[in-house]
Amino acid sequence: MQSKIEQITANIKAGKTTAHEQVEQALKIAKEKESLHALLETFEDYALKRADEIDAKVKNGEKLGRLVGVPYVAKDNFLTSVGHTTAAAKILDNFESPIDATAIQKLNAEDAILIGKANLDAFAHGGSTENSAYGPTHNAVDNTRVAGGSSGGSAVAVASGIVPFALGSDTGGSIRQPGSFNGVVGYKPTYGMISRYGVVAMASSTDVVGPLTTTAQDAVIVSDILAGQDGHDGTVHPDYFKPQTTTVKKKSVIGIIDDFVSDGVDEDVKKNTLELADKLGQAGCEIKHVSLPMAKYALAIYYIVVPAELSSNLARFDGIRYGVRNKEAGNIDDVYGMSRNDGFMPENKRRIMIGSYVLSSGFYDAYYLKAQKARTLLINEFNKLFEDCDYLLCPTAPTPAFKLGENTDDPLKMYLADAMTVPPSLAGLPAISVPNGTDENGLPIGAQLIGQMKDDAGLLNFAESVEDIVNA
Ligand code: GLN
Predict the structure, then answer these.
(1) Which of these, 171, 172, 136, 174, lies nearest to 155 by C-alpha position?
(2) Structural domain that includes position 336
(3) Is residue 452 in contact with ligand 1, taking CB distance under 6 Å?
(4) How far is the centre of ligand 1, averaged over its atoms, from the C-alpha of 121 (Å)?
């Protein structure tokens, strides 16, 4: 599929359009699509000024960045020195960051233009963007439905044509699932491929940064810029991301994870996934049916490990160092307690309580330690599958986008939407959601492709072939 990013940069370099026009157009569409509530803030003055600076560089024949004049938005858990960074939580309502996250710095250095910040579930806790303190984002295809989450604003900003790409973060599915719900590409790299410096931490052992785009090729272009070591994030591997330009070189062996095309999965989701497997078979891939028995424990593991980590990470929001402080609080305990009570959403509080519980001395062994052991068994199962398979295939989510409000009273139902995205997150594996048709109501369905650790370039290459097959 044709890269939107390349189209824009080529036209700017050829003088057929300007960065100024691109930014104006993005801001105009953002205004037209305001009711979807994809964005929490837009930066008209800043973005147009940047565009004019870039247009001057084009005119003067100066060296241009790889994303010259391309407008983008970032999920509002990326620190940006322009505007606010709220993580969609009241406790950071007025927070202005003194720095840009490394990902933002790298994109800006390539002459991309940040035009706004995208909505999310507060602190990225959620799968529908309904946990935002500023109200939900609506699905780009059916506005009575959820955007998915937690990078719902980023997905809708791309799907509704505001920007060609957006930054998201993914801890258990937050890029892939909203990508799938809105019919765009959502790519979660191998853990440690892209610096997380300047991204509000959720669960440090699974958090990753990645792009939402309209094509896999655009995910390659953006990831090539974002990948690489950063002195501020010691978990980033030395550079290994080398985009491949060839189409699938050898006959790939694709494992369909049978556990995820079984009972409880929407019929159309199952049908589209199995049809894709057939088409891949016809295209010369070897298709194997495989099983991941530990997958049935993945949500239980995730909802112990992740709350444990996030309860520690959120301890820093104490009403003193960042953001909002309760004005009535008369002593230090009240400053902490009342500010945190005002500033966190119910879902944040639920997770902080679970996390504190599973880490407490009497329960650590029974919950946290056991969950980590089970996580290792899941990782071993993935490793075993990759002895025979190059890539794994399954749906991205068990259903297409659900109705706004449908799951808000039932956290467990909401968590089930993560059943397929959580396992690769726990294992640190790269995974990408590519659009794979629609259901009978026209709602987008995503196919999740999972690769081996550090085979991001191969996975994205495979994703491009899958796109071609789906669109043939
Ligand atoms: N929906 C998942 C959760 O609520 C994933 C969130 C994420 O990846 N940030 O934890």
Answers:
(1) 174
(2) 1-472
(3) no
(4) 9
Domains of the chain: total? 1
From the candidates 3, 128, 132, 150, give the one annotated as an active-site residue.
150
Reduced to 3 states (helix: H, G, I; strand: E, B; else coil), residue 87 is coil
Per-residue confidence in pLDDT tens, the chain, 472 aa: 789 999 999 999 999 999 999 999 999 999 999 999 999 999 999 999 999 999 999 999 999 999 999 999 999 999 999 999 999 999 999 899 999 999 999 999 999 999 999 999 999 999 999 999 999 999 999 999 999 999 999 999 999 999 999 999 999 999 999 999 999 999 999 999 999 999 999 999 999 999 999 999 999 999 999 999 999 999 998 877 877 655 555 579 999 999 999 988 999 999 999 999 999 999 999 999 999 999 999 999 999 999 999 999 999 999 998 888 999 999 999 999 999 999 999 999 999 999 999 999 999 999 999 999 999 999 999 999 999 999 999 999 999 999 999 999 998 889 999 999 999 999 999 999 999 999 999 999 999 999 999 999 999 999 999 999 999 9
Q: Which amino acid is at 39?
A: L
| Contact (CB, 8 A) for 175 and 395 | no
Length of the chain measured in residues: 472
Whether 75 is catalytic is: yes
Cβ–Cβ under 8 Å, residues 395 and 447: yes
Nearest atom in ligand 1 to the alpha carbon of residue 303 is: 10
pTM of this structure: 0.97
CATH number, residue 297: 3.90.1300.10
Structure tokens at 364: 């650590």
